[in-house]
């Protein structure tokens, strides 16, 4: 597996951007994460956000068909963790946002592998060298995702809040692996 930055001007990134924009979230996930047609443009518009594709291929993709076959998911790392109530030291944190896997890759250990050290940690160190911890917010009703994040080393902080839609969100963190 690889995480490929989508903010870079490279042929592979362009192919994977198109693949990500074709993804459709399953009905059960629509309430927990916004679709990439919304989150990718928002990430493009914010210099603090770095969008990435999850690929299940160890090699770069060279054409649209290979990109569609290899692109298993999407996420955004956000260096601007503004809310002090998420973590004690927002300046040392990077926020994982809009993370999902396509239906075909769920339940196969891909999410845990992506969110565990060292894969996500390497990307976080690349985009946020100052960061010492990863933080995310997960819908409390999304028990499967919370389980995956726990298996990847994230722990609940005990902080909960209501999002804009009135859904209860649980804040989870884990330290970044040293030397990732």
Account of the protein in words:
The structure is a single chain. With 180 residues, the chain is an alpha+beta fold. It has a single domain (2-175), classed as Gcn5-related N-acetyltransferase (GNAT) (Aminopeptidase, 3-Layer(aba) Sandwich). The protein is 29% helix and 28% strand. It comes from Nocardiopsis sinuspersici. GO terms for molecular function: transferase activity. InterPro entries: Acyl_CoA_acyltransferase (IPR016181). Keywords: Transferase.
Summary, kept brief:
GO terms for molecular function: transferase activity. This protein has 180 residues and is of the alpha+beta class.
Distinct helical segment count: 6
Structural class: alpha+beta
CATH class: Alpha Beta
Total beta strand runs = 7
Look at the structure and name the CATH superfamily: Gcn5-related N-acetyltransferase (GNAT)
- Our estimate of the beta-strand percent is 25-35%
Main β sheet profile: 7 strands, mixed
Number of domains: 1
Low-confidence segments: none
Q: What is the fold-level CATH name, i.e. the topology?
A: Aminopeptidase
The N- to C-terminal Cα distance equals 16 Å
CATH architecture: 3-Layer(aba) Sandwich
Mean pLDDT: 90
Q: Helix amount, in percent? A: 25-40%
Strand/helix succession:
EHHEHEEHHEHEE
Shape: globular
Strand arrangement within the widest β-sheet reads: 1-2-3-4-5-7-6
